[in-house]
């Protein structure tokens, strides 16, 4: 492939990475080296397989001007947060039937959603306001201003525990904040690692990440898990700052920091052809059948998406695969011990774990 083609692939990869607070383009474009050969990474169908229920947004009557942002699972339904702010919901099992629609109140830029394990209600966070929306099971809405926090910003990701609410702040000195159900900041953990301003931006294409971020997921029994970008270890929530290490450190750049353009990699295809991807762009943590997994960036064949890079976390080892899902990039995956839900720009995928 010619050098200019590699540059086009890298540009597309950087633009499709999950966004936080934009830090602005570099003053000069990065120099793109020749891609390094990579060992074969197998295609997978862990999510988009014949047993999954795949439903287009169009069939759910979602307007074309709306895009999926985040997904959550309650005991009987799948909820998807859209932008502009709206919620669409379908049953976890069986036919989709008539979807439910809901508009969160307020003017905040709602950006993250999670289900409350205690009662199945929904909590929604904003990336540009220290505010939560709590949607009760009867549809009643409450607005909760976060307390004991200062400055401007919001939460980029949200996880609700049995008695605590965990939020990932936008560019704070601590990487994870812990609130009670009244919205009061009661603790924090994981010191934030270096920010983008402290690293060499002349060799990075992932400018969208101004700061690293913790990635959180819910374990099979409801416990909150987190991948800490500072030490690239996987933790399970305990009391306050007492989090148990359950995996890592992994051979991965601190997720959400930046990707060095010297790490553009290739995957040879059987019978000829090559795939391109950037290995350290990570956007989500989720569990698949009890195994922690990272959702990576899109993998490109020429100038079109072939699939999405997934990493299975086993002990201290990362095992990559390419999830081929209708040649779309996966935006988010949520799971519990029985069911998973994934979103792309065109479809909602819901499946049940075997066994």
Q: Over the alpha carbons, how many angstroms does the gyration radius reach? A: 20 Å
Q: What is the name of the CATH superfamily?
A: TolB, C-terminal domain
Low-confidence stretches: 1-37, 201-209
Judging from the principal axes of the Cα atoms, what is the shape? globular
Overview in brief:
With 355 residues, this protein is mainly beta.
Annotation keywords:
single chain; 4-stranded antiparallel beta sheet; globular; Neuraminidase; 8-stranded mixed beta sheet; 355 residues; 4% helix
Report on this structure.
There is one protein chain. 4% of the residues lie in helices and 42% in strands. The protein has 355 residues and is mostly beta strands. It has a single domain, classed as 6 Propeller (Neuraminidase), CATH 2.120.10.30. The model is unreliable at 1-37 and 201-209 (pLDDT under 50).
């Amino acid at each position: 492939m010619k050098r200019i083609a590699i540059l086009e692939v890298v540009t597309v990869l950087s633009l499709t990475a999950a966004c936080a607070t934009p830090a602005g383009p570099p003053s000069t474009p990065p120099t793109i080296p020749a891609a390094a050969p990579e060992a074969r990474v197998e295609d997978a169908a862990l999510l988009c397989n014949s047993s999954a229920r795949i439903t287009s947004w169009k069939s759910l009557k979602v307007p074309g001007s709306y895009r999926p942002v985040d997904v959550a699972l309650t005991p009987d339904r799948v909820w998807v947060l859209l932008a502009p702010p709206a919620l669409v919901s379908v049953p976890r099992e069986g036919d989709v039937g008539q979807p439910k629609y809901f508009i969160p109140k307020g003017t905040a830029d709602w950006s993250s959603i999670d289900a409350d394990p205690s009662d199945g209600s929904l909590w929604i966070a904003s990336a540009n306001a220290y505010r939560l929306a709590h949607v009760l099971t009867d549809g009643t809405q409450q607005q909760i201003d976060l307390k004991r926090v200062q400055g401007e910003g919001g939460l980029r990701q949200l996880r609700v525990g049995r008695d605590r609410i965990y939020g990932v702040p936008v560019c704070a000195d601590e990487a994870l904040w812990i609130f009670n159900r009244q919205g009061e900041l009661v603790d924090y953990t994981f010191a934030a690692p270096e920010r983008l301003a402290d690293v060499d931006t002349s060799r990075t294409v992932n400018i969208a990440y101004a700061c690293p971020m913790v990635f959180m997921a819910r374990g099979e029994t409801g416990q909150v898990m987190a991948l800490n970008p500072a030490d690239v270890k996987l933790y399970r929530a305990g009391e306050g700052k007492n989090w148990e290490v359950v995996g890592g450190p992994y051979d991965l750049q601190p997720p959400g920091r930046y990707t060095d353009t010297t790490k553009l990699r290739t995957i040879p295809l059987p019978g000829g052809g090559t795939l391109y991807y950037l290995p350290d762009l990570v956007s989500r943590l989720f569990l698949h059948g009890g195994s922690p997994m990272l959702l990576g960036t899109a993998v490109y064949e020429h100038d079109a998406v072939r699939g999405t890079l997934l990493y299975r976390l086993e002990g201290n080892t990362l095992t990559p695969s390419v999830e081929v899902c209708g040649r779309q990039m996966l935006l988010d995956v949520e799971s519990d011990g029985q069911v998973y839900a994934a979103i792309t720009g065109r479809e909602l995928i819901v499946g049940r774990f075997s066994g």
